[in-house]
Structures
1.
Amino acid sequence: MPELNLTSAPAHLRHGSNIGQPLTRRDGVLKVKGQATYAADNHPPGMLFAVMAVSSISRGRVASLDVAAAKRHPGVVDVMTSSHKPPLAIDPEIKTNPFVFRMEVLQSDEVRYAGQPIAVVIAETLESATEGALLLAPRYETLPALVGLDAGESFVPPVVGVGNPSEVHRGDVEAGLASAEKQIDATYETPPQYHNAMEPHAIVASWDGDRLQIDMPTQGLMLSLARIAELFGIAHDKIHIRSPFLGGGFGSKGLMSGPPTLGIMAAKLVGRPVKLVLRREQMYGPVGHRAPTRQRLRIGADGEGRLTALDHHARTVSSTFDDFYEPAADASHTLYAAPAIRTSHDAVRVNTGTPLFMRAPGEATGSIALESAIDEIAWACGMDPLAFRLKNYAEVEPISGKPFSSKALRACYEQGAARFGWAKRSLRPRQMRDDAGLLVGWGTGTATFPALMFQAQARAAIRRDGSGVMEIGAHDMGQGAWTALAQIAADAVGLDIDRVEFKAGTSDLPDAGIAGGSAHTATAGAAIHSAGAAVIAKLADLATNDERSPLFGAGNAGVIARDGRLVRRDDESRSESYAEILARAGLAEVEASGTGAPNPAAMEEYAMHAHGAVFAEVKVDPELGQVRVTRMVGAFAAGRIVNPHLVKSQLFGGMIWGMSFALHEEAITDRRSGRIMNANLGEYHIPVNADVPPLDVITVEEHDPHVNALGIKGVGEIGITGSAGAIANAVWHATGVRVRRFPIRIEDLLTQS
Amino acid sequence: MKSFDYVRPATVAEAVAAAAQPGAVYLAAGTNLLDLMKGGVSRPDRLVDVTHLDGLDAIETLADGSLRIGALVSNADLAHDANFAKSYPAVAEALLSGASAQLRNAATVGGNLLQRTRCAYFYDTASRCNKREAGTGCDARDGENRSHAVLGWSENCIATHPSDFCVPLVALDAVVEIEGRSGRREIALDELHRLPGNTPERDSALDPGDLIVAVRLPPAARVFSTHARYLKVRERTSYAFAVVSAAAALRIENGKVAEARVALGGVAAKPWRARPAEDVLRGVAPTADAFQEAAWRALADAKPSGDNAFKIELARRIVVRALLLAAAGTPARLPALPASPFASTSGAIHA
């Protein structure tokens, strides 16, 4: 990998501190010029190409593979199968911790889902390996596939999401429903969805003895490294992973999965570097997805539109061999102040790759159902849906009873509604038309996502020339970590951003934690902040303890770091540059480490969430049923905004994702074979540019002293929540037709004209 | 990848000879063929690259007033030809509603006509498909078939032809010029695509080696230019095939329909010319009621092939709307969102 050449001095003028400035992304020029090196761009000398052959059946076993035919094909070097592969140090079926998922790495001839890797062909060229994989012509012993939400006996999973209880309740839901003046009982369905990151999963692996060099996009360098070390029985310090850029991950590159592991095995088998890149359709199986759900919501309200009970049950699926349960009903934990709330889950096992975290796991699926249901009960009460939400505003977290660490949701509702012009909305549906006669509908949805923190470390140094270094194995998935974290780093060491060498994206740097849960900026940022404070404290020690320094005697608390100088807090005329301090001390540099971690005491006391309010306008052709989103306004409160420019981009992306959820996205599964029938970007529809209307994002000011030292809540996922529901509700308002199966289809709206 | 021969003939005659061999296929832009090859759906032994043949990339007006479009003219060049768009606005609108800008830049006129169905079971080589492999069966028939045919299908195949371009072309009586082993011949576009019957493996009336060299629009096709539209309902605004589409063209004289042309897309294995609808409109006033009647006639023989009954009702509504739009007159400029029900939405950006 060549030295990264990030833009060091962005064109924007900056005033004051780095945090809060709308810098353009520092990797932007590299990417526009095609100079950003993604994993699959690496071609070490002697590299071979590996192509996976995958199962076309969903359940059964591979009876035979024509390995001889594949090997005869010119250019094919070897064929890795369940009976010809390098040994692993640990059975891949063993779950050594909750973040380990079972993977298919040719450990047996059993097939448990369509698209499962069943062999790997390694060849001199991609074309040879591809043809070799076809020539394997597998024969199967096939068993009937388990497909869909009714595939078998349901059961209550012990936990959903990451360790959440599958059932939670407060108050007496049945009594609340019985006493309600108005009730709704509605069932919503969401389809399986696939992450479909623009960059496919890819690995380039090279062994040198027991040392392993890897280029691979990952959202979790250290988790991946630990899993590889465990699987191959080598020490952590023998492994080096480079992941400077990800072309999107959305959760599917968070944990080590089967395909990159197969790439490492293949390299070991042939003793040469190997590249393995998934074909688009191969991303619909072994690398996770969002499970389908069927959610039943029963909601009661009294005569004044106050909730009396909220019951949210979600059915989902997991694979036949591992456990991940989309925590859809948990979306009802935090938003609305019902005196009685129950959330519960059950699941069935189907022949699918194990579902996984996909951008807003649980929140996205749960939000579209909850926000639709809230709209339905508001209409049952004859109330404006925004007024209904305000009436049931949760002043404390409903289930836990904890106060919020901060919650500017009311301001989000107010500012979003004002910008959108919500006050002019007709209460009744199917009342508004545009000049062309199209039905017009307005809908709203509340957005929420927990403000999470993981564990991270960072290392900071100040060098003799007065410049800074900040090292952290952080991940830029396109969200802008190279820029936002560098801004935090610059403030942490009191330097301009172009005076700080910011290193990230490799596994030899301190652990930045996983880039997931919308927590990366908060977690890595906190570690950077703390490392910066520590190195400045060391520098201050040097100065304030040295009688030759103008800062002598100021004490640690008595100086601040600014523009490469330490300045006496009580006398700004007394200061000294970093370079002067280090020169006098005869040191090449000072360095220090810092950590970022959740604060258990604060978490005990406060509920921590980001919030938002999304308003959407749709137009619907009254006869033809085609829907077009024409306007969206999202107002979000997510604590401190490190870079408003990047944050807006994240929120735009989330809102578009919500639009996709409501109107477009669905993996179509053949109900007999269990194969995904639209595993390509032509037929798996996500919005194109022409579908996306002008989007308006408002970031509502919010100061949160409790979530972390920087007050950051994270914005990676919240944009989806609220948005999907707002669009679904706008479609109802336009047409009077309440569609409860997503995505909303043309035929759902053809019922009347 | 399977090894194959690649030949680049110098003349049409050489091309026809090379492509008449078993296992040979023509390669133009390859926007469909290469995907089929990558997916193992098509495994030709020989590609006959016709992109360098001379004389196949012209748009010319012939002495009798017909327009001759060379088979290698790109979809984008044709749609953006000002004279073409003015004379045959529904064809230009259909072209611009198809695929994506990148694909339209590459894809050719001849290739558009000969693109294969988008039936997922045709593309999924693990599924049974009579079109891909004769006699194996049809897994679409009891499968995920919401988007499949409602007209002209058989128990052997319920696939649809995906082209937008062909729909107004067939309405305008386009003629296909073919060079084959026994010389040049021409057939109506309406005769080019075949309904599946018992031989769904044969998409078209072409014989081995046959090369489409041009598409011709007869002089009479121009008379509809002031009242011609294409309307396409799809699941996103660009880069999506039609759920159902329709072309409608009217010649209105003295407040009456002198002549009507109606064709449907996305409903059958061929672009579906709806002559019963045209007949019922002849000599009547262009009213919504008349168009309703025409729509009923157009879909009189329709029946669901699966989970797709909605397409019949949708097709009726699209026929009515397309006729209403045509009656209202061709807009002075092509809409920013071509063929979209939202074509008139203000502030729309280009698809």
2.
Amino acid sequence: MPRKTHYYRFYFEVARASFRRQLVYRWTNLTGLIVNIFFGAIFSYVMIALFQARHDTAGYDLRDTLRYIWLVQALIMVVVPFGWTDLMLTIRSGDVVSDLSKPCDFYWYWFSREVGSALYYFLFRTVPIYLGGMLLFGIGLPGGWVSWLGSGFFLLIGAALGIAFRFLYNIIAFWIIEARAMVTMGQVIATFFTGSYIPIAFMPFWLRSITLWLPFNGMMNVPTEIFTGKLFGGALAFEFLRQALWLVALTLLARGIAAIAARRVVVQGG
Amino acid sequence: MAAKTTTMIETHDLSKAFRIAKRRPGLFGGMRSIVDPEMRTVSAVRDLNILVERGEMIGLIGPNGAGKSTTIKMLTGVLVPSSGKVTVAGFDPHRQRRALASHIGVVFGQKTQLWWDLPLIDSLLLLRHLYHVPAERHAENLAHMRAMLDLDEFIHTPVRQLSLGQRMRGDLAAALLHDPELLYLDEPTIGLDVVAKARIREFLLEINRTRGVTVLLTTHDMDDVEALCPRMMIVDHGRKLFDGPVTGIRERFGGERTLIAQIDPADLATLPRGGENQPIIEGLPAGVRQVPAESPQVALAFTRDALPAHELVAWLGARIRLRDVTFEEPDIEDMIRHIYEDGLLLKEEEEAVSVG
């Protein structure tokens, strides 16, 4: 290919277009923001009630717990956005056929789109939601720039894992006509195992042991625990290895299934 | 890679059959179908031979389910043929789909490749990177498209706010920015008003003439074909019924046209009434028959060889006062019925063999 030089430019531009597309939905974002803050407040009051009876749960004091809760609320839309059916809808309408025939990689095209919107959600959800938590519950900012940097790095992995996961539960629409059920199930599973309901550290030992080995752990729990100073040092290398392997595995799986789906379309029609 | 020949599209006995699982009736039947599905084969396209030269404009017409879309999908490479050979712009569409993609442009009348929430210009700029078009070339093409399609009045408007005609102009620009040699259009004028249709047709003639773009369009609308294409193919049930010049096509296969006349209310009262209280015109010329219409209209169906349209208007006008007169052209379905009924299909096939 003589034009190899601007091969990646397209994906960059797709991410940019996707970012700008999100900017259009100001009111949707504002209402979503309010919902996230509302849930952050509910979970916070539950935890405050819990910590009246005890002062330490699994090594977390009240302030650690509130920080965890607020950061998780702040990251949900970056990592496991609710109601993401964009890919599924193109499969249903048949528009996917024209996407498959574009001279670009189908998976990286969707990946770039989601990177663009993840960046948007980071700026317009994560930051204001955490600020909301600081204002309402005085949770402050933990750690220093080293833990922020580490957390940011692991958030990149987490976001990429989230994209691969939502791609997988959407692409099932090629085989199942009513794929909404799968979307709901995918979301419930992700919400639970990412620690959105209760911090993973609070889970019973047996459940936590399983959860820590799942890719969902890398989506939000790992970046959050690094941010709150619960995860540091040598443990990071191990988490990196574990989650990087998941990322490679899920990405390969997503691309593999996309290839099978493409072949099916090519033989069976849209 | 692709040798420059004068042929753009060539297919040889192109066929596509789909295998569809048939569900057995009842609960147990349904369960059995999961384990042991009963497969039914449906042929969408049968032994299709197409030869399109570079620079041609050709219309592919046929009723719903005739196999037009399936054919286009095989020509773009998104569907693999069950059997037969196909070459487009020197490529094997299915195996070289990505390479072929930068040589062709595709527009589906009912779909869009534009970003719905963003201004039109954003989608047009993004396409440069998809097809790796050099910046100057892209700028030149974009300027050209903006002028020819009058995009400037809405280029900064989000696509979701565009009218159907404007969106179609945007989609046409999007399909042509990477200088494709071949343009596929699927129902490009569907749902458009007369002015928008005329504008799109004019543009297509222009790019065909000035840029030498080969155009293959599928449509329901015979007017599209008559305005644009010197040559047309009619397909039905996956088979080619006709392949030849458009001139005189309606005269040959067109069946009956219909004259619809608005009768002056005063004269309407004087007409005798038939079944369902329909006014009756008596003593019609040979080859003309009256068909049911809504009062105060009268509809007369007539064949081309019966008498010229203006003579029929004059004939009718001499008997009753007319407020308005319109003509309805026979539609594709009528033409196909006519082709079957008169066995015209066989004659064309003999011709094709002797030419080929």
3.
Amino acid sequence: MTVSSGELKKARIVGLTGDEAVAQAVKQCDVDVISAYPITPQTIIVERLSEFVANGELDAEFVPVESEHSALSVVTASALTGARVFTATSSQGLALMYEILYITSALRTPVVMAIVNRALSAPINIHCDHSDTLGARDSGWIQLYGENVQEAYDLIFQAYKIAENRNVLLPVMVCLDGFTLSHTLERVELIDDQDALSYLPKKLCYPFPINPERPATYGPLALTDFYFEFKVQQAEAMRQALSVIPQAMREYEKISGRHYYFFDAYGLEDADVAVVCLGSASGTMRYIARELRKEGHKVALVKLTVYRPFPTEELVSALEDMKVVIAMDRSLSFGAVGGPLFEDLRSAFYDHEKRPLIGCIVYGLGGRDLTPSDARSIFKYGLEIAKTGMVPERVKFVGVRE
Amino acid sequence: MSIALKNLPREEPFAPGHSACQGCGPAIVLRMTFKALRPDETAVVAFATGCMEVVSTIYPFTAWRIPFVHLAFENVAAAASGIESALRALERKGLFKSKKKVHVIAFGGDGGTFDIGLQALSGALERGHKFLYICYDNEAYMNTGIQRSGATPFAAWTTTSPVGSKIPGKPQFKKNLVGIAAAHEIPYAATASPAFWADYIRKVRRALDADGPALIHVLCPCPLGWRFDPSMTIDVARLAVETRFFPLYEIENGRKYRITFKVPRPKPIMEYLKLQGRYRHLTRPEYSDLVKRLQEAVDSFYHWLEHMEKATSDL
């Protein structure tokens, strides 16, 4: 996110936590149906939204369901009816929604869901890692990750813009790190209410909404003769999203002055070693990258905002001149080649002529802090690989007791 | 309210051409349901995964002339909640208008209602959505091939409650679904049978007029799973009522009980059991004790109902 100068309305500046900022954005999107179930650290989002509805600040139905499974079922059915909908969850809640995640995307409903990232049980843990959303990476949802509270706020608007695009019609997860962002008060520039609605005009958000005057069958049985075609259409919609996303981001820049792209790069122009990460760790990593560059080390940071669809071509061309790329995974894929982000990155480079060495760092599980010295050791690890020309271990854990 | 055959609507929102079995009880009940709609009313239906969803919507075909929504097995009450909430919000905000009054009707089989869908159903009833939930109960998981459910009666054979040398059929009794619904103190809950069509249509009518959630539990004989000739569906359904095996009653606001078809001189339950292959073992003398236990349970529940009706008659 960079701020560009231009003819913009004077922004209202407020102090909000990540959860409050998400609720504020959802209110400004004039959603029609909200359904959610409380779970730490997401709870404040739905508390604020229920207050907005109770105070008449937001004209919406708030459906206080008995489980996350029902929450996603409610908003999926509401979206089929044409409503603009919202839900939010974390960790176990997302795990309970799993069955419906695939149905929401396959029915092509433009549901937007905030996920406040939290580790999965067991042991039960309320703090941040990305195991919850990374586990859902194949469910047909677009995934956006915010670095700070401002981004969490901004990404909600862009999520609706992308989801409701007729060439996409896929649900979107807006992910923000539990506690680090959800419960941390930061300075947030709000966009103007009118601008929000001109960016996201109010209409029926589903192209063939449920209507007895135009009856249709939603969610039929499709067997060997048609199922495959439905799935290929979903894959095509994901491909379309790759061109719709930057366009939605450019339009958002016009009303906010803030620039978004698939990823945000710092120091790539002359670097040898680039670290790629998701979420709030980017702040610490960028700060250390800046220090190391002052010390003469050619390091860069790429913060990935869009994880699904994976911006393969764009990342490859941005990173092709690196000697070393380090993927920072805040989740584990047990028994796999490496962490999910690492696997995506390494696979993206496989058929490319210029292939950097690629390492995998797993960090921060269960909310384990990523300290500046950890950040420094990660860059140093990359620099060492650049020097020796070999990746010593395919997956390296940082911040864990031996 | 009197229901006359000649006044019923001729429209068939559930069209012929679906692939339900011959003599399918639930298919008959679906057709009858929409006979309760007035000319200025229409419906959106939501279905749990199950026989009726599978037989009516095999892509690229559909048997539905009204909007039909299916998401998954255990969440039809949540799906109906979502449709109802969205229609309300969109109408209020000027984004949806209908010439006819739109009812939301959810359908689930006994598996999708008694068992896996009970949590979502309880949530929806408690929240008070304005919708009608119809459970078409064929007393086992018929879509997967006759496995026992919480609705399977005592001693009945299914593929997961087989009649073995040690355990002869299902050891447990059927769950009281209408009692569970009534415990939510919803405006209307009732049992019904396809053999008593006027009673069923009247109950659907009452349910649609209720100010809040309503539930109707319909016993739907399944020729395939119960092992009887497909021509006998309605006879079997009638005998379930005439033996008091499945009494017809309704409960208003979780309080006021009324038996809608009184059975002063019940036939012995064996009249009902002997028509069905799933109870074939009960005709053997060594299982006469099971029949006795079943008869006692049937008698006891009916007497309790009579007491409830009497006790709540002045409410």
